[in-house]
Design brief:
The protein is an alpha+beta fold. It is about 20% helix and about 35% strand. The protein is built from five helices and 24 strands. The strands form five sheets. The protein has a seven-stranded antiparallel sheet, with helices on one face. Strands 19-20-21-24-23-22 form a six-stranded antiparallel barrel. A hairpin with a 5-residue loop joins β15 and β16. The radius of gyration is 28 Å and the shape is elongated.
Length: about 375
Amino acid sequence: MNRTSAARVTGAVLLATGVVTALSVPAFGAPAAPVAPTGSDTESYPAELLQAVERDLGLNADQARVRLASDLKSSEVAEQAKASLGDAFGGAWIDQSSGRLTVAVTKSGLSVNGADVKVVKNSLTQLSGTKSVLDLMSAPASITSWRVDEKSNSVVVEVNKNVRDAAADKWIATAKSISGSVQVAEVTESPTTLYDLRGGDAIYMSGGGRCSLGFSVSGGYVTAGHCGRAGTGVSGYNRVAAGSFAGSVFPGSDMAHVRTNANWTPRPWVNRYGGANVIVRGSTVAAIGSQICRSGSTTGWRCGTVQAYNQTVNYPQGTVRGLTRTNACAEPGDSGGSWVAGSGFGQAQGVTSGGSGNCSSGGTTFFQPVNPILSRYGLTLTRG
């Protein structure tokens, strides 16, 4: 296919907007070590799960399968013990180094088959009751969380030591007066809500205006360059601060890289507006005449065909080279949004630049190919 012939087009516009008891316990016997899986048990885990366990727990594939099977058996033993022990049940946990299960009990002389037993002071019911009382108390911002910690047989209150104040100390004192099971742990950070980065969702620039997210990359996403200059702050679809433009080129090209903060997680998704998310698998360029679809925060999911590559477009703001021409419609606010093609529309193609017409009467829309963006900024596409 010919991608070298450049055509100069005028009249196109950018598409960004302006804005138990002992008697009831079965005779379980002595504790037992975790049982390794055999037969089909070792083959029943999805590849994605095994890969995640290997990566995050530092295990090889065989170790991951053994650990997953052992955890499942331990969870079943824990649930059975909870049901049988009743108010004598103090909780249960799996030791991360040995993989063994421990069951806490409030009465001595009890045993649980398949687990070690530890005698504790507080039952899980008591600990949960204490936490329920704390749940009714309004906490100052420096109190970051509280939870039942079965392993320490306590209710742990976490406070950010960097902003601990008199209000926090007063709240903690009240909590401790409710039960001696309350313990305090100091932390250095306060939790925040987390959000997903998804192609086609709205983004808002600090100086005003709305565009659309293109594709997630490691540490952020790509979008159109005319949406913001380097240093421009940006927020997500929910107006929560997301980061800032780390790089931007326009005119000449129409590409940008946004580096996001820790509240946002890059996902290999494109919003299909009314349908399941498209999963991005790669960025193989589609042939001229291929079906192609785009996602944007104004007009949602729209489709058409690839008509030409390497088109030069003369916008009022300046000339942009190397764009791809399509007959899919778009409107202001769709700028920067995702273009996808291929099987399941899993191949990333580019980000919306501009065009003419609209989604009522039809039109022509141009996009900046994604591979040059990735290459310019040294980015890696987030893939499913």
